[in-house]
Write a structure and sequence with these properties.
Layout (H helix, E strand, L loop, with lengths): L2 H18 L4 E7 L6 H16 L4 E6 L7 H9 L5 E3 L24 H9 L1 H14 L1 E11 L1 E4 L16 E2 L3 H9 L5 E2 L5 H6 L5 E4 L1 H6 L8 E3 L5 E9 H6 L2 H35 L3 E3 L6 H10 L1 H4 L6 H10 L3
Parallel strand pairs: 1-2, 1-3, 6-7, 9-11
Antiparallel strand pairs: 3-10, 4-10, 5-8, 5-9
Bound molecules: D-malate.
Pfam family, one: DctP
GO cellular component, one term: outer membrane-bounded periplasmic space
Keywords: Signal, Transport
Length: about 325
């Protein structure tokens, strides 16, 4: 083939690609939980939306169950451009972006609607900007997973005193570690990807996560008792490497942001439609549900006294916390 012909073919191909303004590409997305939970719903919806918006030119390969590393490692990998996307719990972003810790301040968020208000309004926008600055990743969507409840394999727990002698796994998150300390136990910080095995082998006796996560991870096979504490409403962002985002054309960037919003809306509806039936399924599978004593008063009092004041600094100051409380009408 002569040079002229080659040039003609090359420019025809370029024109086709440029006219659609989308180049065929495949991205990798890490997912901390097993398939079937809220993280999976967010991820699959996002990837479907991207496929639809780009007429199949963008494909997203999903890697559930921590296959691409533990959740905290995926933040590092995305920050340096080794990984494109990750869906993980917000508590595993906080070590890299301390101001998002406000979303894991225990007993701050008291309902799914409050979680939506904070993440989708100006406070969520500010936290997203801070996370780009501090962690090199951009939050483009949210999974709403419900309250983190406490599970254990030993006995019914109603009050913090009932935790005495139990080994409880927590994420490597200072606010959550301090919460258990305020309840009188010294918890064991452990990566999410190691938690099922640690529960199964009895290295730890308990942990906390929402019903939907307990179900997706099959924790009912290794845990018996559930205490319905409502200390943290679990929020699980979809993040993209900021360097990968910046490499995309404005057209693709817009599609990514729009798909993230659509997947977020889907996640909210998914939780509303499935949470109580998942709770009932867990009961049918043998889990025993326990309500905290005295309307959770002892749990709440210990946190407000010993945990809130300790973390005002890291989340941006007491004024910032008060501003968030005010946004929630408190
Ligand atoms: C954790 O407990 O580390 C996470 O919240 C688990 C999750 O991502 O679902």
């Amino acid at each position: 083939m002569n040079n002229k012909k080659l040039m003609a073919i090359f420019s025809a191909v370029s024109i086709t690609l440029m006219s659609s303004n989308v180049f065929a590409q495949t991205f990798k997305m890490a997912i901390g939980d097993a398939a079937g939970g809220t993280q999976w719903e967010l991820a699959t919806k996002f990837s479907e939306m991207m496929k639809e918006k780009t007429a199949g030119k963008v494909k997203i390969d999903l890697f559930p169950n921590g296959q691409l590393g533990n959740e905290q490692d995926t933040v590092n990998d995305a920050a340096i451009g080794l990984l494109d996307f990750s869906v993980l719990a917000i508590n595993n972003v906080t070590p890299f972006s301390p101001t998002v810790g406000v979303l894991t301040m225990p007993y701050l968020i008291q309902s799914a609607d409050e979680a939506k208000l904070l993440t989708q309004g100006p406070i969520g926008k500010e936290l997203t900007d801070n996370t780009i600055r501090d962690a090199g990743v951009r939050i483009i969507g949210w999974a709403y997973s419900g309250f983190r409840v406490l599970t254990n394999s030993k006995r019914p727990v109603k009050s913090p005193a009932d935790l005495k002698g139990m080994v409880i796994r927590v994420p490597r998150n200072e606010i959550m570690i301090a919460s258990y300390q305020a309840w009188g136990v010294n918890p064991t910080p452990m990566a999410w990807s190691e938690t099922f095995t640690a529960l199964q082998q009895g290295v730890v006796d308990g942990q906390d996560n929402p019903y939907v996560t307990v179900y997706a991870m099959k924790f009912n096979e290794v845990q018996k008792y559930v205490t319905n504490i409502r200390y943290i409403f679990s929020l699980e962002p979809l993040i993209i490497s900021e360097s990968v985002f910046q490499q995309q054309s404005p057209n693709i960037q817009k599609m990514i942001l729009d798909a993230g919003k659509e997947a977020t809306a889907h996640s909210f509806t998914f939780l509303k439609n499935t949470e109580s039936s998942i709770r009932n399924d867990l009961e049918k599978k043998g889990m025993v549900f326990v309500e905290p004593a005295n309307g959770e008063k002892e749990w709440i009092d210990a946190i407000k006294k010993n945990v809130w004041p300790k973390f005002y600094g890291s989340i941006g100051g007491k004024d910032k916390f008060d501003h968030v409380l005010k946004a929630l009408g408190r």
